[in-house]
Each structure stands twice: as C-alpha cells, then as structure tokens.
Amino acid sequence: TQLLEQSPQFLSIQEGENLTVYCNSSSVFSSLQWYRQEPGEGPVLLVTVVTGGEVKKLKRLTFQFGDARKDSSLHITAAQPGDTGLYLCAGLVPGNMLTFGGGTRLMVKP
Amino acid sequence: NAGVTQTPKFQVLKTGQSMTLQCAQDMNHEYMSWYRQDPGMGLRLIHYSVGAGITDQGEVPNGYNVSRSTTEDFPLRLLSAAPSQTSVYFCASSYSKRVFYEQYFGPGTRLTVT
Questions:
Q1: pLDDT tens digits for range B63-75
Q2: CA B26 to mean position of chain CA atoms
Q3: Do A100 and B44 touch (CB under 8 A)?
Q4: Mind listing the pLDDT tens digit for each residue in B17-30?
Q5: Among A23, A96, A104, which would you mutate to test the B interface (most chain B Cβ atoms within 10 Å of its Cβ)?
Q6: Chain A residues whose beta carbon lies within 8 Å of the beta carbon of residue B41
Q7: Radius of gyration for chain A, computed over Cα atoms and rounded to the nearest angstrom
C-alpha cells in the first residue's frame, strides 16, 4: 500500500475538457510536489505547495493543498494535447525523503 | 549545463551479472538520489546522498550499492542482477540537502534482467 494514492489511474479526454486528479493520504505532509513526466523522460517539477489550503496556479493548471495537509488536487482547464503525460504527486516524509504516488496517466485527444 | 546525465540509456543483463549505472550532474547540487519506476507504482527511492562521502538507504535498497566520492557523481551498482530489478532507473539531484527543493531528474536507464 502506497502512502500517497492517486486517482484516477488513467484518464482519457477530448481537447477542451476540464479535469481534476487527486492525491490522497491518511498522513500529514509538510509539503507536497506535483511532477509531470513525458514518455522516455524524467519527471519535471510543476509546483510545490507547503501551506494547508494553499492554491497555486500555473497557466491552465490549478493546484490545491488540503487544509489538513493530507491531500492535494490538480485541476486542468481546457485541456490540450500538450498536457498529455503522467502526473505524479510526491510528499516529504521524515528522513528527508520524497515518497511518490502511483501517478495519473492523462491522454488528451485532439 | 548538461543537467543530470545518465548512462547507459538501455541495458540488458542476465541473472547474476553485475553492473554500474552512471549518474552525473554539473549543477553543484548537494543532494542526489536514485529511484526506480515500475508500472503503477510511481517512483520508489533506492538510495540517496546529502553530500560527498554521505549516503543512506531509501525505501527499496536491497540488491543495490552506492557511493559518493565527488559532488558530481553518484553511481548505482547492481551486485547480482535479478529479474525483479527490471525497471526504469532515474537519478535526481537538488541544490539543497532539503529535498523540499526542486529535484532535477535525468532521462533514465531502462534495465531488463533476463
């Protein structure tokens, strides 16, 4: 069982649709990061959230950290084919390590 | 800046063989780490280092060794390869010992053990 559970695991949508992916845990995290990974490449950091209730926006992407710092969501408005990829959340755990969720694989069809 | 580089890109090993996956970064980062990525399981930390001469175990260290003799290099050694070690391996670095900061990932090494 992973500390961070991501849902859904797979999502296939049409260009222009909105979507939300979730990252949930029963543990409290001091910070949480979201990464995007494209095929054949390493993950690239999108955002770090550190304060309960924090909302960060990155163009059409909106990230929210839960008030209790146990969960986070990523909302994409008007998805584009370029948003296709694997979205990973990661939380900081004791021992100065990151633990990752299993990821949400998003496909946006033109 | 080349960032984080990894070699080789692909490797096939037979069970019982040993090999070293190379990782180098040219950003003078203190923190370096190795992850493996398996389908549906995200990334799992194998070993990490907070500076030259200092290494520690992550979540799945068994069957792997690391050393950090310089700031730039952090090789991962497979002592006796097993099919369960078939995976994609990523090296990452961060400029701070606090992993809170952005981690830069290499392009990965795809390893198959037959």
A1: 999 999 999 999 9
A2: 16
A3: yes
A4: 999 999 999 999 98
A5: A96
A6: 2, 102
A7: 13
